[in-house]
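Let's study a protein:

===
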Amino acid sequence: MITKDDEKYMRIALSEAEKGAGFVNPNPMVGAIIVKNGEILATGYHHAYGMPHAEREAIATVKNSKDLAGSTIYVTLEPCCHYGKTPPCTEAIIATKIKRVVCAMADPNPIVAGKGIKILRENGIDVEVGVLEKEARELNRFFVTKQLLRRPFVALKVAETIDGKTASASGISKWITTELSRNHSHMLRHKYMGILIGINTVLTDDPTLSCRIPNFESKNPVRIVLDTNLRIPQDSNIVKTANSIKTIVMCSNSVLSKKRDRNGDLHISHLVESGVDLVGIDINEDGNLDIGKCLEALARPPYNIDSILVEGGSTVHEGFLSKELADYAYFYISPKILGGRNALSSIGGLGFQDPNTCPEVIVEKIQNLKKDMLISGKIVYSH
């Protein structure tokens, strides 16, 4: 039976879980708290991929293991029951004679998917599931999306003027937003496992796509470039830094095959020697890369990417929206007005023809960043 205190303790566990943001991918963020007779004995969270899970972390901090007998452990995700980077958490819980386990949600991973709960109950442990489940699923939307849809969670990031322009008619885009907004967006790069742009952004802006927030420089996202015809310059910043920052360039299968058939294309050789991973993808009816297949490839080994921040450009943004493959949006809006029918808009292509059926952002948060404003929320599609 769920008690009135269960929600209170689960909120603490969720706060613990959030401390792992940006470090645990592609694992979920998980927090745990152990309570006995109304006293918190221990808290723990999953610190980073490959490190002990939250349950074991919390259990290990209790000095006298005998104190664990008869206690309740609150955990934001069903305890694992399989051997991976770490041993099963169910074994640790059973061994300590914890009496009760309260989970926010069942694990959507098919390897677990209720099996952990079943094992605990078979060993006489009282298990409750569903306390603050909505909050837990939101916290782990990256993990849930990858498990259920077999693709990464996708967020679009846009920096635009108040009239929806990302560059002037002459192509100038530096800087639309303030330094504060740019620093804020770098924190997003820390949270997301991958960052994606199109080849036109490489050719126009020559970005590095690193995380430049103090203390987070070593935690750069995997860089992904959509480059149908493999035009990425060998002297671009992305290629020059590919040996130090994981870099994937996705091009068409036909282009990759043709170049490789030419007795070892020099351009391909240079990219590979520079540390670039080349991935061939089928093209769609428009002659562009099939975005759905790109996402499927990125979610599978060896990459196992659970989340991607799409930083454009406008054609790439439109491609994700038109295929209904964007889940979330961050709009950094500057009070500047550029105007001009030839100025670049944040979403390119032909656009959507009906304001009653076009994609919509369900706003979750509005933040003031001095002069700028950040609007973020889920993207929903009409059917």
